[in-house]
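B., you asked whether I could sanity-check this one before it goes into the benchmark set. Here's the sequence:
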Amino acid sequence: MKNIDSYSKKILDELNQFLEANKQHTICLSNVFFVLEKDILYSPFGDTNRVAHSKIVSLDKFDSIISPLIKGGPSWIHANLIRTKENIPLVEITIGTIVGNPNPSINVSFEPNLLIEIMN
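And here's what the prediction gave me:
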């Protein structure tokens, strides 16, 4: 199994290649944050989508919070860059079923029209 630190870098590399290809601003490792998809409260009526500040994972906590979820080899990892009202690059992480895959594919996307509010 790869070192989890390589996953954060690989996710950012994949996202930046995608953003460059779509003529969007790239993001850097030093100012990006992560959140698990299950921790975002999506509004069914188009109101503001929200996430608790306590659910946001900084890069230095990526290993301790995301690592246990990736251990065992997921079938895939999806990273979706979303905008926040606070103008913080936030990468939503979704992890596929654990199937013992030592090298899961990393798929990326960007939601330019989705807005997330960070709640205290």
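One thing to flag: The chain has a mean pLDDT of 88. Otherwise nothing jumped out at me.
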